[in-house]
Amino acid sequence: MMTGFLEERAGLSGKVAAVVGGGGGIGAAVSIALARAGVDLALCDIDEAAMAETASAACTLGRTVTTCHADATDEAALDAFYDRLERDFERIDILVNIAGGTQRREFMAASRADIAQDIQRNYGYAVQSVQRAVPLIRRSGAGGSIVSFTTIEAHRGAAGFSVYAGAKAATTNFTRAMAVELGKEKIRLNCIAPDTTPSRGNMNGLPPEYGEAFGRLPPSAMSKGMEMYIPRGEQPPAEALADAVLFLASDMARFVSGMTLHVDGGTMAAAGFLDWPFGDGFVPVPLAGTLERMYRDGD
């Protein structure tokens, strides 16, 4: 049971959350964090084994958990999840839309099926999820919180991820519009925009040859790359994203709505400034120190 000043201000204990994509990786971190805060859970995920493990951990914490093995991008499957949720809990207070993903490819190399898939799994399902969740949130009469995961790519020209970036931008603006539409009902909608995180999903978004190349690098080389790219110098772990969900879902954010919270260690703020090595420091392009090392032979 939660006790103490912060727990009382958060007001999460006793609430019910639906977590779409709550089985593994970031979803598991979010689900367990909510469970630790005293929230009962309805989980939907395509990875049945990971979801079962997460559900077991939440049950161990004393929470009531219902699960549905489903692909959230399948309209009938997502409806089945919400039908089960309604039978088991009757209402929810929190919705977290985490499911998503893409594959790096040039737009002109993408098939129409690739494009449709990117739109559905990064925007379409989230619209359906919100539409199903709102009547269940309304039942308490006390409002609620909807948090959807977008990405930093929704806010920059992400070459190689064009449809994904566009779909996530759509989710971001849909969230703003619905925050206005539902504001007087005290139903808040916000987004979390991660950047690079040490997750399987991020690696799966790259072509296989990239993963193989990264696998040949020593860990120190990977960390050096992150030190250059992320002002904080390290990737935010899944737990940092879970903390952001806890805040946005809680009463401490009761007047925060229609916003996007960037949990990225400062990459959005940097806007292309990288901490180049060899004395160049934070600049958009490498200076003489780095260029000399890279092209000392004139190539």
UniProtKB/TrEMBL annotation:
Oxidoreductase in keyword set: yes
GO MF annotations for this entry?
oxidoreductase activity
Please tell me whether the keyword Transport is annotated for this protein.
no
A Pfam cross-reference name? adh_short_C2
Query: Transmembrane region positions?
Result: none
Keyword annotations for this protein? Oxidoreductase
Q: Which InterPro entries does this chain map to?
A: NAD(P)-bd_dom_sf, SDR_fam
Task: Specify the domain of life of the species encoding this protein.
Answer: Bacteria
State the family named in the UniProt similarity comment for this chain: Belongs to the short-chain dehydrogenases/reductases (SDR) family.
The protein in question is named NAD(P)-dependent oxidoreductase
